[in-house]
Amino acid sequence: MAGPNIDNIDLQILGELQNDGRMTNVELARKVGLTAPPCLRRVRALEESGAITSYHAVVDPAMLGYTITVFAMVSLKSQAESDLKAFQEHVDTLPEVRECHMLNGEIDFILKVVAKDLQSFQQFLTSKLTPAPNVVSVKTSLTIRTSKNLPGVGGAGGGRPAGVTRQRRARQAALALAFCWSIQVDQNPATLAQSLSVACAKAA
Predict the structure, then answer these.
(1) Are 113 and 97 in contact (CB under 8 A)?
(2) Is the dihedral of CA 105, 106, 108, 112 positive or negative?
(3) What is the 3-state secondary structure (H, E, C) of the chain?
(4) Could you tell me the pTM of the whole model?
(5) Pick from 160, 162, 178: nearest CA to 170
(6) Phi and psi of 66, rounded to 5°?
């Protein structure tokens, strides 16, 4: 249910801006059936209320050389609030982590990690993630392809699919055995490196 100050026209505006954040106010007003001045006032009000939090470009990671997307499920030794906060603060310093969500159940956090290749991800995993304070285990799954990736929320008029990732990323991930492994903090780093090297060779 939308907030008390958000009506159907606001939802249309949000839906259109989710689809194209660079749309001019004149075009946006035409699409939602308003003249330009009241449309702009509504957009400003949505920004000031926090309903619109930011505008940014959605880039193609593969075009920038980032061919690997991994979801990492992290379990901590302690779920005390101070330890949870400390882990979140550590993740904030890691540019490879693009999303971090706290979960209930056995897994404490799920991270979306983007890397240039499996070797880069191995380096990130062994030097930045598993050694982090309070981490007891990390389970990771390498994505094969992305079939849906929409911004925002569906209730605001939906969005456009970002599209299936490029074929080379799907091929690399598939040849990497749809790479999924479970890592304990005390696992032998040499064993981990050997396993990842095999996957990298298959993905080359």
Answers:
(1) yes
(2) negative
(3) CCCCCCCHHHHHHHHHHHHCCCCCHHHHHHHHCCCHHHHHHHHHHHHHHCCCCCCCCCCCHHHHCCCEEEEEEEEECCCCHHHHHHHHHHHHCCCCEEEEEECCCCCCEEEEEEECCHHHHHHHHHHHHCCCCCEEEEEEEECCCCCCCCCCCHHHCCCCCCCCCCHHHHHHHHHCCCCEEEEECCCCHHHHHHHHHHHHHHHC
(4) 0.72
(5) 178
(6) -100, 100
Distances in whole angstroms, Cα of residue 90 to Cα of each of 57, 106, 140: 25, 20, 18
Report the alpha-carbon distance of residue 18 to residue 2 in Å, rounded.
16
Write phi, then psi, for 137 (nearest 5 degrees). Answer: -160, 155
Q: Which residue has the tokens 């969500």?
A: 101
How far is Cα 139 from Cα 128, in angstroms, rounded to an integer? 15
d(CA 193, CA 167): 26
Per-residue pLDDT tens, the chain, 204 aa: give them. 456 589 999 999 999 999 999 999 999 999 999 999 999 999 999 999 999 999 999 899 999 999 999 999 999 999 999 999 999 999 999 999 999 999 998 899 999 999 999 999 999 999 999 999 899 999 999 999 889 988 788 867 544 433 333 444 444 444 443 344 444 454 555 555 555 555 555 444
